[in-house]
Amino acid sequence: MAGSRLPFTCEKRPASGALGVVVTNAPLGSAAGAEMLAAGGNAIDAAVAALLTLTVVEPMMVGIAGGGLSHVRLADGRHVVIDALSTAGAAMTADMYEPVSDLPPDYMETRERRNRVGPSAVAVPGNLRGWCLMHERFGKLPFADVAEPAARTAARGFTVSHYLHGAIREHEADLAADPETARLFLPGGAPARPGERMVMGDYAQSLRLVQAHGAAALHGGALGAALVERLATGGPDAGRLTMDDLVGYRAMEREAIFGTYRGHEVAGPPPPASSGVHVTQMLNMLETCDMRALGFGSAESLRLLAEVIRIAFEDRRAASGDPDFVDVPVERYTSKDYARACLARMAQPARSLGPALHESADTTHITVADRDGNIVCATHTINGLFGARIMVPGTGIIPNNYMLNYDPHPGRAMSIAPGKRVPTSMAPMIVLKDGRPRFALGLPGAVRIFPSAMQAIVNLIDHGMDLQSAVEAPRLWTDGQHVELEPAYAAMEGALAAAGHEVRLVKTIGGGMNAIEFTPDGMMTGAACWRADGVAMAQGGGLARPGVRFQI
C-alpha cells in the first residue's frame, strides 16, 4: 500500500539484513541483542541479552523481579511459549486486602493502595526464571556471555532518555518516598534529566551474581534473600513473598494457539494470555468481510473493528484467566463457526462487562530473529510503572506490583489464590504463510495490546502495508464502553459518534510496537514505531569467502 495513500506519515525507518534482526524499545537493548548475533549466538541468546539490558535502560518497564511471556519459533518449526508470569505466593489469600468499593471505578482499589505500592504489592516474580529456562533450552552461547551487556551497561551507565525522564516525573511522589529509588532516579531531589548519565552500581553487582549463578541468584540465592528481607517490614505494609515461593517458582512451557486468516497461520500464546484466543476470534470474524474493499481508516472499517473488538472483550470478561483455576473454552472461542455466530451480536446492544480488572500498560517488547530461522517474540514487565515503586537496598532491584492485577474481593474468578497466574493481554504473535514465518510482532499496552496486534495483522494482510507503516498506523480501541481513537483517526470521530459510539480522542493506544518481516529470499526487515524509543538493528554482509585472505 503506497505511503501517499495512507492518512499518516511514518516517523521511523526500518532496517533489513539477512544475518539477523533485533528490534527492542530501547537502542541499547537492540545493541545487546545484535552483539550476541555478531558473537555467533542465536536469536534466543540475543533475546535474553536484550531483555536483561532492558532491565537497566528501561527500569520503569521491566526487571528480573517481574513477569511475562516469550513466544519462541525454533528453526525446526516448533513453537514454544515460555510462561514466566508472576503468581500469588503460598501465604497470599483472597482476603489479604481491604477493597475500598464494590463498584467501578474504584472496584480494584484497596485501602492505602496496599495492592499497588510497596512491599504488600509484590507477587512471586518469574522473568529471570523464564529467561534462564529459555536460554538453557534453546540458547547457544554461555549464559555469562549473554548477561555481559546488561552488567556492563549498568556499571558504565547510560544516557537518560526523555521517555525515562517522563516516567520518573509521572510517579515522582512515590519514588521520593523510598530512599533507594529516590537516590537513583531523583538525584538532588529532582527527576534525572534527559541527557544525564545514570549509573547503576548496585544493580551491576546484582547482574554479576545473575551472570555467575543464573536464576538461582534470585530464586534462592543472595538476591532473593535481600528481596524477602526488604518486603518483611513487620508493619501493615509487609509483603507475603517468601524464599520458599522464590525457590518453588517454575516457568512453564506452553503450546501456542494457531488460527488461520486468509491463507495465513497466526500463532499466539494460550491462556492465561488472551491474545492467542481472542486475536484468532477477531480475525475469524473479520475474515467474513472484505476489509481491503472497505479501505484502511474508513468509517465502515472502523465501525467494524470496534464491533469485533467489543465482542472479543465480552467473551474475554466472561471466561479468561489461569487455566489451572478457570475453564477457558479455547476451542469454542477460536472456531470459525463460533465467529460466524458472533456476527449476529454486532446488531445487539453491548453486554454488561462488570468491573474492569487492572493490567499493566507499562511493559516492554522485543522481536528477534537469526539467519537459521529462530525467532523470539517476547513481552515482559514489572506490571505498573516502576512496579511496586520501591527498590531492594544494595541490589538495585525494583520488584513488581503484580498483586494489583488480582481481584481484591474474595469469591470471584480472579480473586487471589496461591499459585494463580492472572490473565494477560500480552500478544507476542507470529504469522506464517505456507508453514514459513512472514511476520513476528508485539507491543506493550495492557488491555490495548491484543486488539492493536490484530489491527497490525490486518494492516499487513488486508491493506498490504509495508512493515513500517503497519506498526506506526493509527489504532482504535474499545471494550464496549467507549471508543478510543489516536490522533490520525480524529477525522472519523463524527462518523463513529453518529453510529452511536461515545468517542474519546487519545494520544496513544497501547505502546511501542516492534516487528520483523520475513521474505522468501531470506531477507528480514525490522521496524519499531513512534510510541516508544524502539530501534531496529539488522545484520548484513558476513564473513569472507572461504579460502580468501588478504595478500600483497
TrEMBL record:
Residues annotated as signal peptide: none
One Gene Ontology MF term: leukotriene C4 gamma-glutamyl transferase activity
UniProt xrefs under InterPro entries: GGT_bact, GGT_lsub, GGT_peptidase, GGT_ssub_C, Ntn_hydrolases_N
Pfam family, one: G_glu_transpept
Superkingdom of this protein's organism: Bacteria
Keywords: Acyltransferase, Glutathione biosynthesis, Hydrolase, Transferase, Zymogen
PTM entry text: Cleaved by autocatalysis into a large and a small subunit.
Gene3D superfamilies (UniProt xref): 1.10.246.130, 3.60.20.40
Pathway entry: Sulfur metabolism; glutathione metabolism
Enzyme Commission numbers on file: 2.3.2.2, 3.4.19.13
Catalysed reactions listed for this entry: an S-substituted glutathione + H2O = an S-substituted L-cysteinylglycine + L-glutamate; an N-terminal (5-L-glutamyl)-[peptide] + an alpha-amino acid = 5-L-glutamyl amino acid + an N-terminal L-alpha-aminoacyl-[peptide]; glutathione + H2O = L-cysteinylglycine + L-glutamate
UniProt keyword NAD, yes or no: no
NCBIfam families noted in UniProt: g_glut_trans
Subunit structure: This enzyme consists of two polypeptide chains, which are synthesized in precursor form from a single polypeptide.
Family: Belongs to the gamma-glutamyltransferase family.
Protein name: Glutathione hydrolase proenzyme
